[in-house]
Amino acid sequence: MQGFIVNPEDVPVVLLAGGRSSRMGSNKAFSLLGNESLLARIAARIAQRQTWPIALNADADWPDTMGMMLVPDRIPGRLGPLAGVLAAMQDTQSRYPRASHVATIPIDSPFFPPDLIARLAHPVEGADEIAIAASLDRDHPVFGLWPLSIATDLEGWIVSDEKRRVTDFLARHHVRRVDFPPVTTPIGPLDPFFNINTPADLLEAEKWLAATESMS
Question: Which end of the chain is less packed: N or C, by CB atoms within 10 Å?
Answer without folding.
Answer: C
